[in-house]
Amino acid sequence: MANLTGGFASLQCAGAMHVDKVHMQASGLPFLSFRRCAQLGISRLGSMPRFMGARCTFVSQQHVRHKVRASALSSLQDDTTKFVDFVVIGSGVAGLRYALEVSKHGSVAIITKAEPHESNTNYAQGGVSAVLCPSDSVESHMKDTIVAGAYLCDEETVRIVCTEGPERVKELIAMGASFDHGEDGRLHLAREGGHSHNRIVHSADMTGREIERALLQAVDNDDNISLFGHHFAIDLLTCQKNGEIYCYGVDSIDIETQKVVRFISKVTLLASGGAGHIYPTTTNPPVATGDGIAMCHRAQAVISNMEFVQFHPTALSDEGLPIKPTTKRENAFLITEAVRGDGGILYNQSMERFMPLYDDRAELAPRDVVARSIDDQLKKRGESYVLLDISHRPRDKVLAHFPNIAAECLRHGLDITRQPIPVVPAAHYMCGGVRAGLQGETNVKGLYVAGEVACTGLHGANRLASNSLLEALVFARRAVQPSIDHMVDAADDADAGAAPLAARWARPTLPSAAALGGGGGGALSEIVARTRRTRAELQAVMWEFVGIVRSTARLKQAEWRIGDMEAEWEEFLFRRGWAPTMVGVEACEMRNLFCCAKLVVKSALARRESRGLHFTEDFPYLEESGRKPTVIFPDAVQELTWSSKPLQRQLQCK
């Protein structure tokens, strides 16, 4: 067992945790029992184991933002403390789909740090994978998922998701989501890397945007849901009772009014997305700063598999465009997996096809294989991008299937029907996260997770293309009934003691001239400037030392440099008058980025093998003894850094 200091009671990986192994039914493939591992290793876990086309019109943001329905006013008490049955953190597919179900049973507040549509869902191009063709099967989808996941997936989770997925897609269609159909009138099913069948339901190359549109429209029509845009979640509100940790809501910053708003709830669903911005180049929107994972870690939730960061092989390389963008993008423009699935071929800049040299599946290999192959080509040849060519396909089909990509490239002087697309890997998806059971439950009572923030066991060591939206839909729906049950059980306690409980947690404060020792705007400007520089430095360290190919020496170097960087940043803040209870969006994002970066590095150091997305030069092979998840248990004594401690102390409740 690896006993690690600095907030990790025990971080267990290869050879450190004894887990039963069974065989995958129907396919004969071995797998790791993720749920069994959870039962053996974790106490208090119970049974846990840009766009073209008018059809993508959004709900008016002026209408949606800060919407408070009349029927919910009795639950929302005042400007700074709001009492609801359910609070949902995040407005992507997982959060919205869950909210639409639990709103039938109580009041719901959705809080999101930017505009409601600004989520990873909105940027998902490819689609939703589901078995909807008679020639396909659940067993085939399962096998593809487990092979892509390097046999680290949990079979029970995989079977549930692959079995329930088709019904979840049909529900989206019933709610008004519009997907592409073929000439025969049936759903057009695309194929992507790692899939053995055509099973990707899509809306051209803007699937996430279409799903987000349909769900936001449904939320807008639901009188029991209140949506709070531009609210940044700071920390979960927890207390300990009878040896269990309970979650009672979350503190947030209303970015527009610059007030701290406290949401007290019977149930909290965290669906806040991933942490792509721990790296300098990511396909994730600016909101993806690991807030949910960091908040849960500070609240003593169990974290798992953080070493498995998926780098999408094909983000648009601005350097290779004929007309360069005039400003740096906040997030890289994604070139969907479906381009390779539709026949796209990868070349180096000498127009030499290289993928068959690395894998028999060539361009249809899973993402981890393709990303490492591109990385190897770039390093060997000293080049900064490779080329993805789809120009040999019929022009009308390319434009019909990839209108968004075609339009973006054409804006920069490149016609994808005639020229290859310059591409480079970019951070894309966190396969690890907050450890969740089969119903999205965590070891913190009243706290559920769904979407990219969660680690359900589905993805294993590498996510299969288009399984992310599928997982979000399935687990958002599975979390509904246990959430309702918990709300009913908690109703008596919450109704009697919610107001006194809300007042017991100290309130975070916003910086002011007086609070910053009279330094006023100058001190705050210095803090903001230093924070931005520190953020860029952290991202550079993560890319250089914790990227696609790793080594023990580089990981230890990253651990040392991140620790020093964090200490220096915090010391700078406190010298300028910043107090541990102070909050600001950029400072809080920075503490979350530090927290997530350290979780990734610690997890990577613990895995002494190469599996899926984690490739290390010191242990370049798969080890059967390593076919176990990395688990980060909460420590009774947290790290002594600001990023690792919740702003509020954990209460003791009766």
TrEMBL record:
Keywords: FAD, Flavoprotein, Oxidoreductase, Pyridine nucleotide biosynthesis. GO terms for cellular component: chloroplast. Its EC number is 1.4.3.16. Its cofactor is FAD. Pathway: Cofactor biosynthesis; NAD(+) biosynthesis; iminoaspartate from L-aspartate (oxidase route): step 1/1. It catalyses: L-aspartate + O2 = iminosuccinate + H2O2. The keyword RNA-binding does not apply. Pfam families: FAD_binding_2 (PF00890), Succ_DH_flav_C (PF02910). Gene3D superfamilies: FAD/NAD(P)-binding domain, Fumarate reductase/succinate dehydrogenase flavoprotein-like, C-terminal domain, Succinate dehydrogenase/fumarate reductase flavoprotein, catalytic domain. GO terms for molecular function: L-aspartate oxidase activity. GO terms for biological process: pyridine nucleotide biosynthetic process. Residues 85-469 form the FAD-dependent oxidoreductase 2 FAD-binding domain. It is an enzyme of class 1 (oxidoreductase). It is found in: Plastid, Chloroplast. The keyword Acyltransferase does not apply. Belongs to the FAD-dependent oxidoreductase 2 family. NadB subfamily. Catalyzes the oxidation of L-aspartate to iminoaspartate. This is L-aspartate oxidase.
